[in-house]
Automatic annotation (TrEMBL):
Name assigned to this protein: Tumor susceptibility gene 101 protein
GO annotation (BP), single: protein transport
Annotated localization: Endosome
Keyword Repeat part of the UniProt annotation: no
Pfam family, one: Vps23_core
Taxonomic lineage from the root: Eukaryota, Metazoa, Ecdysozoa, Arthropoda, Hexapoda
Coiled coil, from the record: 249-321
Family: Belongs to the ubiquitin-conjugating enzyme family. UEV subfamily.
Gene Ontology, cellular component aspect: ESCRT I complex
Amino acid sequence: MANDEVVLKQYLSKYKHRDYTAREVISLIQVYRSLVYRLEAFVFNNGTRKDLLNLEGTIPVNYKGAFYNIPVSIWLMDTHPQNAPLCFVKPTPEMTIKTSKWVDSNGKIYLPYLHEWSPSGSTLQRLVQWMITAFGELPPVYAKPRNQPRPPYPFDPFMPQPSGYPYPQVNPQPGYSTATPYPTTSNPLPYPNFGTPYPGSVSTNGTPYPAATPYPPTTNFGPGTEAGGTITEEHIKASLLSAVTDKLRRKLNEQSQQSQAELETLRRTQQELCEGKSRLEDIFTRLQREKATLEKNLSTLQEKEKELEAAVERLAEQDGIEADEAVVTTAPLYSQLLNAFAEEATLEDAIYYMGEALRKEVIDLDTFLKQVRTLARRQFTLRALMHKCRQKAQLAC
């Protein structure tokens, strides 16, 4: 099994779902050990050539109480299980295909299970079980007539036969007696026309596989049919009911999931809207507070503006004020500090203009140096006095 898994993964290296396909094939060949897998070239009708995995061998079919090995070939698409497999009956040279509602004249198999193939629910084992059930009702092959008689059942080269047993020529039995097309009737099979479930193709040995066509017209399906199989009308009804139930259940699940997704989207949208509403309410409250603060500040500014206008009017009615009387100190220390500051500022201006006079050659250098020396000495004394006054008044120096 481990070796099969390694080989299969090498064969399926270009498959989209390699691991899933390998598990399905291993599970199938463990149940039906006569099936073998090979990687072979498959040529479609449009000339496209692909390397696909081919499951070829026999499946056991119970026909009228006896088991027969029916040779089949199952081609897995490289998108498996997204697309249904291509299934064919592969008769040996001693066999002839018996056309029916399940198999056309070129061996292509048509089953409702293939038409309703579901990537999430369909499996290869169920597909083979459908083939076994369908071929148990209508065998897809029978032995070619020979000069020697043959036994009255479909020839099976895969089952051991008694040594030297001749195949006598006898009258054909119902269900596999003749190579003529399956008889038609005005009452078709109660399955829908499946159209083209998968593209027509040709096998690797050159035998053409036709494009998929609707099921050939057949007789009514039910008890007492020509095949005389063990499947009764109740079985068919139960199968149809099960298929319809599964389909309805899938649709209901899809609708339920879609509704839940939409509900979850609406719930998230509602939550986002509620959060947005809370943010907007916070912003509105903050704007209200800012508006109240701005109105209060505006009222204060208007009051101050009125006070300034009144002060301007008072000053306009008064006489002029002397500059020396505009500033009045509250203590002698502050008066001394103010006078020293004013004198120091005048000395600064005097030194500046002395430099301008020297530059313009209004005074000579000796005069400039003498006067600047005197002014600088006085300026130094005033600055020392201001520093001492600030320390006494405990002001920042």
